[in-house]
Design goal:
alpha+beta; Butyryl-CoA Dehydrogenase, subunit A, domain 3; Nuclear Transport Factor 2, Chain: A; 11 helices; transcription regulation; RNA_pol_sigma70_r2; transcription; RNA_pol_sigma70_r4_t2
Amino acid sequence: MIGRGRAVADSGVAHEAVGAGDLDGAAAIFTSVRPRLFGIAYRMLSSASEAEDLVQEVWLRWQTTDRSVVVNPAAFLATTTTRLAINALQSARMRRETYIGPWLPEPVDTSADPYLGAERGEALEFAALLLMEKLTPNERAAYVLREAFDYPYAQIADILRSTEPAVRQLVSRARRHMAEERRTPVSAEAQRELLTTFIAAARSGDMAALERLLAADVTNIADGNGRVRVSRRPVVGAERVAKFMTALMWFWEGVEVRWATTNGQTSAVLWHDGEVYGLITVSASTDGIDRVLWMVNPEKITAAVAPA
């Protein structure tokens, strides 16, 4: 495993080897790199709760590792996290085959850490996470490590037990797949303004205003996993989405909207009778809002969102 026997730069995060019995030192190192480990795990799994569980497993393994032979603890921990995440992703995809209705990434609060432990905010927004679902686990890992964390190709090759040329191909394929469907997003300020205006139009049932905000091929997706009554099929097209939203005017009765920052963008956390009811966000390009995403699966909301 990487980090044993030779030092490997870990994107500027490096520590001295820790004695086998120095648990305090091991804990200090783990704590210092934990945000990075969580950022890797979340981008791989698209689930804050699953990422937390995985990082906890890494901590347990770190405690029982012979740390005296680990030259670069940060590299060792990142490698362990990535390899566990690849295995976990394969299992997660099998579970999603029995998911009731559309599946969406679990939101994560990024108000305190906009890049979620990374050098860049890449592979964090909902649109990017959805596109990454089409990548193979190794393509996804290579893309995340390179594009979000700026790992050298040689180190990614060690992590994936591959070669540098093969890793370059993985990253190239992943970039190509992402670019095929990805649109240039609007600024964070514009995204927040569009979301605010969209919710106001939806609450008032203003169909004309809704259509003006939406891209022609907009898709409305609701994730409830059968626990909340929502559309189990995406609604596609500006007119259809606008009609769908105006038919849901009743939904907004008694709903309080609080703003939050999740996945590097503005989201609206919906409260009803003092409880979190759901979360809505949008992705948008110069053509307008191209995705309206509703997360109303109670487990995803209560586990991952800290309202502003």
